[in-house]
Write a structure and sequence with these properties.
By secondary structure, this protein is of the alpha+beta class. The protein contains 9 helices and 10 strands. The chain folds into 2 domains: about 10-175, Ribosomal Protein S5, domain 2 (2-Layer Sandwich); about 180-295, GHMP kinase, C-terminal domain (Alpha-Beta Plaits, 2-Layer Sandwich). Helix content is about 30%, strand content about 25%. About 40% of the residues are buried. Keywords: ATP-binding, Isoprene biosynthesis, Kinase, Nucleotide-binding, Transferase.
Length: about 300
């Protein structure tokens, strides 16, 4: 008997776009230990790739340059499996049917790199399975499920430029235009808990007013007031981060910095040609590092379930 019913598709593909924190202001800390953040977030056009197919039994296979990094992750800690199982339970509770699914994850983004790799994979799993199973889930329920998977999952579910506040649950779209971008990671491990532990302050000022239109010049002016409060302690732990940001500045990036808790750094450029020159020069100078030439998505171009 075919597993393809009238309410399912046979195969679906999703891109788990890299999440880039153009700014990350640490503005406080809750009683439960969670830090309060104010972040300007955008997404790359590129990321991990996931394929979902109706199957006889559930499975997850890994491929890509960084697949080996996930090989030791226990199934109970794998965010793709968590997203699959929790979405299935949510859908089943409403009386809708699901099928077993074979998931293929091509891991092309570095792991634990400050660009939301695991969270983006979980969000792409939610989007892909909703399409594969053709199920209806109330947006509020989907957001609650996403937040339960991780603080970055709701924003990765949207995958478009936004401002994130609180612990990542308060999201507002912003009119950020698209820029050519180069991502660079020196492939050095970074301890996020240690970075937060070494913060000098946890009550820093929030992000100021942001442009309400996609005017590139207005946004470039606003970048001058942005910062990543995690960058100084991260650079103290991993000096290569400071070197990476210095090289991006030398490559004539319009704006550069560290994303999340690192170690991935970004540079935004005036033109595709300028970004390509920077990417080629960085790849030649540090051939052992991860370098990606891409673009940020423009407002309205993200993946919304």
């Amino acid at each position: 008997m075919s597993l393809n019913g009238p309410d399912t598709m046979a195969r679906v593909e999703e891109i788990a776009r890299a999440k880039i924190n153009l700014a990350l202001h640490v503005t406080g800390r809750r009683a439960d230990g969670y830090h309060l953040l104010d972040s300007l977030v955008t997404f790359a056009e590129d990321g991990d790739e996931l394929r979902f197919e109706v199957a006889e039994t559930d499975s997850l296979t890994l491929g890509g340059a960084f697949a080996q990094s996930l090989g030791t992750v226990p199934p109970d800690d794998n965010l793709v499996i968590k997203a699959r199982d929790r979405l299935r339970a949510l859908v089943g509770a409403s009386g809708q049917k699901t099928t077993p699914v074979a998931i293929r994850l091509e891991k092309t983004l570095p792991v634990a790199a400050g660009i939301g790799g695991g969270s983006a994979d979980a969000a792409a799993t939610l989007r892909g399975l909703l399409r594969l199973w053709q199920c209806d889930v109330p947006p509020a329920s989907l957001q609650t499920l996403a937040l339960a998977l991780g603080a970055d999952v709701p924003m990765c579910l949207m995958s478009k430029p936004l401002r994130a506040e609180g612990i990542g649950e308060t999201l507002a779209p912003v009119a950020l235009p698209s820029y050519p971008m180069v991502l660079v990671n020196p492939l050095q491990p970074v301890s996020t808990p240690e970075i937060f532990q070494n913060l000098e302050r946890r009550d820093n000022p929030p992000i100021g007013p942001l442009p309400e239109s996609p005017d590139a010049n207005a946004w470039l002016q606003s970048f001058a007031g942005l910062r990543n409060d995690l960058q100084p302690p991260a650079e103290a732990l991993v000096p290569e981060i400071a070197e990476t940001c210095g090289l991006l500045r030398e490559s004539l990036a319009l704006f550069s910095g560290m994303s999340g808790s690192g170690a991935t750094c970004f540079g935004l450029y005036e033109s595709e040609r300028a970004a390509m020159r920077a990417a080629l020069a960085l790849s030649a100078y540090r051939p052992q590092w991860y370098v990606l030439l891409t673009h940020t998505v423009a407002a309205g171009d993200g993946d919304v379930p």
